């Protein structure tokens, strides 16, 4: 049997609280999640319409939102929000083991999601 060397939790959260789809709350989300699953946060980067002229901002339901990558010592946590659709997509990948069920419960609670779809992928050599 191959030895696992990493895992990825993929979450699709639906009917979320869109008031949390901003840089301050997402920064807090990453900090709390890293503490909860015992990951060491490193650089955090955002892609959104902050500072973009009004006429150049995203307006389509599938593109209007914020994307953020929280690098962690053992890989990344990526979040994409879709403001108009009230959805959040989250990928947590780490070579260090973490409790996927606990991470999912935290994400659902934080974003006040009414439903969630998930997948867990175990990477093996």
Notable characteristics:
2 helices; single chain; alpha+beta; 125 residues; six-stranded antiparallel sheet
Helix content: 10-25%
Radius of gyration: 15 Å
User: How many structural domains are formed by the residues?
Assistant: 1
What is the number of strand segments? 6
Q: CATH fold name, please? A: S-adenosylmethionine decarboxylase
Separation of the first and last Cα atoms:
9 Å
Tell me about this structure.
This protein is α+β, with helices and mostly antiparallel strands and 125 residues long. It has a single domain (16-50, 58-124), classed as S-adenosylmethionine decarboxylase (4-Layer Sandwich), CATH 3.60.90.10. The chain is built from two helices and six strands; from the N terminus they run E-H-E-E-E-E-H-E. It has helices spanning 23-36, 100-111; strands at residues 4-14, 41-47, 67-72, 75-82, 87-94, 115-124. It has a six-stranded antiparallel beta sheet with strand order 2-3-4-5-1-6, with helices on one face. A hairpin with a 4-residue loop joins strand 4 and strand 5 (87-94).
């Amino acid at each position: 049997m191959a030895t696992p060397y990493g895992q990825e939790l993929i979450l699709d959260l639906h009917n979320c609280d869109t008031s949390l789809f901003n840089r301050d709350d997402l920064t807090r989300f990453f900090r709390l999640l890293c503490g909860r699953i015992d990951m060491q946060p490193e650089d955090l980067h955002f892609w959104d319409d902050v500072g973009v002229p009004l006429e150049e901002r995203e307006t389509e339901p599938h593109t209007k939102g914020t994307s953020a990558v929280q690098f962690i010592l053992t890989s990344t946590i990526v979040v994409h929000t879709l403001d108009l659709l009230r959805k959040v997509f989250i990928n947590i990948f780490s070579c260090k083991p973490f409790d996927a069920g606990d991470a999912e419960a935290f994400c659902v609670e934080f974003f006040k999601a009414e439903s969630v779809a998930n997948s867990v992928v175990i990477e093996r050599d």
